[in-house]
Amino acid sequence: MKRYALRIGGEWTEPAGGTWFETRNPYTGQAWAEIPRSDARDVEQAVTTAHRTFSEGPWAEMSASQRGLLLHRLADLIERDAARLAAIEVQDNGKLLAEMSAQLAYIPLWFRYFGGLADKVQGTTLPLDKKGYFAFTRKEPLGVVAAITPWNSPLMLATWKIAPALAAGCTVVIKPSEFTSASTLEFAALFDEAGFPPGVINVVTGFGREVGAALVEHPLVRKISFTGSDVTGRTINEQAARHFKHTAMELGGKSPNIVFADADLDQAVFGAISGIFAATGQTCIAGSRLLVQDSIHDTFVERLLTVARTARMGDPMDPDTQVGPVTTPPQFEKVLEYIDIAKKEGATLLLGGERGEGWFVQPTIFGDVRNDMRIAQEEVFGPVLAILRFKDEAEALAIANDVRFGLAAAVWTSDIARALRMSDRLQAGTVWINSYRAVSYLAPFGGYKDSGLGRENGIEAIQEFLQSKTVWINSGAVAGNPFVIR
Ligand code: NAI
Ligand code: MG
């Protein structure tokens, strides 16, 4: 069995407590590697290393253009190692090889985009209202960033944080999920190979309450960029608030996928399927509430079931597999529990609803769901779809927005005016028209309401790792009464 070490200051480092825990392959259920169980001592070492690297030495003195070049070099190495990294993730996470290959082909573009953006960050000169002064702003990096990531897409979600953080000039300590730490450890070593000064990227692994909490508390961490559940996000945000740390929170969703009668129904069926069964439903943007207009409800559901029935569960390494296992045992239990809840609430089971072998759950569809049911309001994070019906646009909007989350939404219609009206009024950070599950390094991403704070991706993402400093220069103002404001 492979035994991993922590990555701190460009070195493989044994955990201070000298203990490891096993990580399992969700397809076989077998342990395949040992992951260091870090504690506050490892956090201390990682954060002080990241802080020293931020404050002094080559990284602190490097120009933004040089940082950008390093990010491009890193992108080259990810391209070189894409197949290796994809295979590790399939083994540890159970994601489909097809999905991981697509993600690893795309991840380098994040580093290229933010590498290019690094030296386009500019302060401003201020048109002052006072004579005899010149003033300008500088954009300065926040400092040490703690990136805390979940198990569903470890490398992609780490990339969304690391690429803008490094472009801004910050240093990073990453804490991947205890269920899927291997890929992040392997990934971190590529930064050193690319020529980043040691200590720019550091990885501590282990459990949320032990190592995650210590990282959030550490006084030298200035920003916490978190992706995961709203429950943990709330805890971290409260803890961070006590120290006035910056936070970005990318939390869950219960996203509405809304099909109007005038839509291209074949396209909408595929959109509904990719919204909930891709990645076994384990994505924050899952389109887990399908809203279908009354007049087409029955035919649409029939067509959806016809396609959904063909979804192939199996070995994630097999290119023909469409639905892989659930990634973690607690998640497996949670999905089954929600299937039970939906049945008890009176929803009609239309497809699936059973456990498969090992950690598999059948693609599951419930009809006759009311929006006040838990299956319509709570994030399942699995292959479980809830179908609701609506009469008209107004009712679709009311149902879509009547939920505490607001990460994403989709509208299927051939009426452009309706598409625009809906996109104006949907309370969600992303709205897709006649599409689902599209993301890009160019497109800001984040939540409304309980789906979180801050935006990742796009030009504005780099600002999340910067703060403004205003510099005043006296260019001839004469000293006046020192007891009166200038
Ligand atoms: P989680 O949100 O608890 O974990 C995410 C990350 O936070 C992990 O790295 C974890 O170790 C860390 N963490 C946990 N407690 C912490 C603490 N007190 N301080 C600092 N870091 C901490 O998610 P978990 O337990 O893996 O899954 C629980 C549920 O969350 C899932 O059933 C799913 O519904 C939801 N989830 C949602 C995600 C999303 O992207 N919206 C991603 C992962 C899970
Ligand atoms: Mg694992």
How is this structure best described in words?
The chain has 16 helices and 22 strands. 39% of the residues lie in helices and 21% in strands. It is an alpha/beta fold and 486 residues long. The model has no long low-confidence stretch (mean pLDDT 97). It has helices spanning 40-55, 58-61, 64-80, 82-93, 97-117, 154-168, 182-194, 208-217, 230-242, 265-276, 297-308, 329-345, 374-377, 393-401, 416-425, 460-463; strands spanning 2-3, 6-8, 11-13, 20-24, 31-36, 133-141, 144-148, 171-175, 201-203, 221-227, 246-250, 256-259, 289-293, 348-351, 364-367, 384-390, 405-406, 408-412, 430-433, 448-449, 452-453, 466-474. The protein is globular. Magnesium ion binds at residues 23-24, 92, 179-180.
Kindly state the number of beta strands: 22
Estimated structural class: alpha/beta
| Poorly predicted segments | none
- Termini separation (Å)? 68 Å
Number of helices: 16
What portion of residues is helical? 25-40%
Biggest sheet statistics:
7 strands, mixed
> How are the strands of the largest sheet arranged?
14-15-16-13-12-18-19
| Beta-strand fraction estimate | 15-25%
Using only C-alpha atoms, the radius of gyration works out to 24 Å
Integer average pLDDT: 97
* Overall spatial form: globular
Bound molecules: 1,4-dihydronicotinamide adenine dinucleotide, magnesium ion
Topology record:
Elements: E1 2-3, E2 6-8, E3 11-13, E4 20-24, E5 31-36, H1 40-55, H2 58-61, H3 64-80, H4 82-93, H5 97-117, E6 133-141, E7 144-148, H6 154-168, E8 171-175, H7 182-194, E9 201-203, H8 208-217, E10 221-227, H9 230-242, E11 246-250, E12 256-259, H10 265-276, E13 289-293, H11 297-308, H12 329-345, E14 348-351, E15 364-367, H13 374-377, E16 384-390, H14 393-401, E17 405-406, E18 408-412, H15 416-425, E19 430-433, E20 448-449, E21 452-453, H16 460-463, E22 466-474
Parallel strand pairs: 1-5, 7-8, 7-10, 8-9, 10-11, 12-13, 12-18, 13-16, 15-16, 18-19
Antiparallel strand pairs: 2-3, 4-5, 6-22, 11-21, 14-15, 17-20
Bound molecules: 1,4-dihydronicotinamide adenine dinucleotide and magnesium ion (MG).
